[in-house]
Design brief:
With 309 residues, the protein is mostly helical. It is built from 16 helices and no strands. It has one domain: ADP-ribosylglycohydrolase fold. It is 60% helix and 0% strand. Helix 1 packs antiparallel against helix 14, helix 6 packs across helix 8 and helix 8 packs parallel to helix 14.
Length: 309
């Protein structure tokens, strides 16, 4: 198990996001299986997508870099470090500085990101796009790291609404938040996942119950039934199922890539949870060495963890 769970969760999330970038939004598991060479930290190449189901958007990105999801998580980390705590106005300002006009981010921005930039720029409160996709939860590992040991529900809802002001996103985000919170408190992986299931009772939580019940299924087949897309209603059940099945950090990350679709969006949660269970140092050494800006990400993660809960 991880020695410094909050810090390792953040680094593990970045690692899994970057590992999936090369085949992100390739919705064709048969093509992924047929590709020669490694699937983790694969250089983004439009040729891998030719004639297959998927969309290639990561032009100009390199193996080892993260997606816009990873950047959104890092924006949260830095916003918390700037204030010593989570403050919505600082997070929104940092988000705009990264993804807005003339911002530091160079790469693809999805609908939720663009809509959130517009909302922040126009002073809308909440500023989030009416969107139910994974930007709702990718900010959570550093946020929960700061809130560990505290009541998190109201702060999570406020932070989610900065980028995803949609009732489905707001209803599902507590599943990821509760699982992360339980793991950071020392719970084992399966107990933490069950805490996430309990956080969203009724019809919302039913797909997560199903995911846990089908932990022995192949993730490719399970994702084919549930869906591989970006909506939290598809991505979180697949992420829970992959984690419930996995026996190592490496296995969880590779199963996530094999499942296809929004592997980067799922990877943030999967990487964070897997790192807390098995330790990020259990990841292949070449993965750790390939993560671009990994030393700085680790330093930021340790600084945030040192703030305490």
């Amino acid at each position: 198990m991880a020695a410094n769970r909050p810090a390792e969760a953040i680094l593990g999330a970045h690692l899994a996001d970057a590992a999936a970038l090369g085949l992100h939004w390739l919705y064709d598991p048969e093509r992924i299986t047929a590709l020669k060479g490694p699937i983790a930290f694969r250089p983004p190449d439009p040729a891998d997508y030719e004639g297959a189901r998927g969309v290639f958007v990561h032009h100009g990105r390199r193996a080892g870099q993260g997606s816009h999801y990873g950047e959104q998580m890092r924006v949260m980390t830095r916003a918390i470090l700037a204030a010593g705590e989570y403050r919505t106005e600082i997070y929104a300002s940092a988000f705009l500085a990264s993804f807005g006009p003339g911002g530091s981010w160079v790469g693809y921005a999805d609908r939720a990101t663009r809509g959130s930039v517009e909302g922040i720029a126009h002073g809308r409160h909440p500023s989030g796009a009416e969107d139910d996709q994974m930007p709702a939860v990718v900010k959570l590992p550093p946020l929960i790291a700061r809130l560990r040991g505290q009541a998190w529900e109201a702060v999570v809802a406020e932070a989610v609404a900065v980028t995803s002001n949609h009732p489905v996103a707001l209803a599902w985000a507590p599943a990821a938040a509760a699982a992360l919170h339980a793991a950071m408190a020392g719970a084992g992986l399966h107990a933490a996942l069950q805490a996430g299931v309990r956080a969203v009772p009724g019809r919302v939580g039913q797909p997560l119950h199903v995911a846990m019940e089908h932990a022995r299924d192949d993730p490719v087949a399970f994702a084919g039934r549930v869906g591989r897309a970006c909506a939290v209603t598809e991505a979180l059940p697949v992420a829970f199922q992959i984690l419930a099945r996995a026996g190592s950090f490496r296995e969880a990350v590779l199963d996530n890539i094999r499942a296809g679709g929004d592997s980067c969006g799922r990877g943030i949660f999967i990487g964070a949870m897997a790192a807390m269970e098995w330790g990020v140092t259990s990841a292949p050494l070449d993965w750790l060495l390939k993560l671009e800006d990994g030393a700085a990400i680790w330093a930021e993660a340790q600084a945030l963890a040192a703030l305490g809960g």
